[in-house]
Amino acid sequence: MIHIEALGKKFGSFWAVRDLNLHVKQGEVFGFLGPNGAGKTTTMRMLVGLIRPSEGNLSVAGIDVVANPIMARQLIGFIPDRPYLYEKLTAREFMLFTAGIYGLRTSEQEQRAQELIELFGLKDWTHELVESFSHGMKQRLIMAASIIHQPQLLVVDEPMVGLDPRGAVLVKELFRRLVRDRAGTVFLSTHTLEVAEELCDRVAILNRGQIVAIGDMESIRKQAGAEGDENLESLFLMLTGGQDVTESLEKAHL
Fold first, then answer.
1. Hey, where are the domains in the chain?
2. Which of 62, 243, 42, 51 lies closest to 157 in space, CA to CA?
């Protein structure tokens, strides 16, 4: 589903991502993990066509994202870490606007919009302006809009931010159903490593713009040199140099 080869992105003299190679299969939930500044969001924005790579190639379902961006975007749903919405529209208007961008038939737009508004618990706010929504409500609305065209690939950056427990359960079940029922693919970035461990078939751990480990949990343990049954959080710290947190606190006399 996703093929990334020798991908790089340079901002001035700084390489945010460099020589990234990654292949994600159709029908899996793939975790894309790393500390702040590792290059996760930059990679995801290149993948969905928001920024152009400085070097390398990336494709979705065999479609080159740079050469054929509109065709590629028809296959992709994107949920950013911060929802960007037209706040002077109502929830219904925003959903219909999004459906129109993706070219849904007029006869489909209203039905799909209402189904998803209800699914994400926004029925009582259907005709309210988005500017009156809480952060969690905006996050649910952007999630609803991201799947209105039934994408083959869902790219998700920090999905649980601002969601209450019901919303978090709904989103996790949505990911499972997309993969199980529609053979879709979920490309997921999150700092909530328990969620990644629960949901993901495989993960890649990124550090300083490059992948330092990739695979299922057993494979990650081997690449980290772990001897026990360490969880993903422990492995993440081993691979990204985060084990010195306690030592740093002690040096600061905290």
1. 2-75+153-251, 87-150
2. 42
Residue type, 121: G
Q: Is 85 strand, coil or helix?
A: coil
The pair of structure tokens assigned to 58 is 């990336």
Integer Cα distance of 41 and 165 in angstroms = 25
Tokens of 1: 């589903």
Non-local (6+) Cβ contacts of 250 within 8 A are none
CATH fold, domain 2-75+153-251, is: Rossmann fold (3.40.50)
Q: How far is CA 192 from the centre of its chain?
A: 12
DSSP label at 139? H
> What are the DSSP calls for 164-206, one per residue?
-HHHHHHHHHHHHHHHHHH--EEEEE-S-HHHHHHH-SEEEEE
pLDDT digits (tens, 9 = 90+) for 58-75: 999 999 999 999 999 999
Q: Is the model's pLDDT at 151 over the cut of 70?
A: yes
Give the containing element (helix H, strand E) for 77: strand 76-79
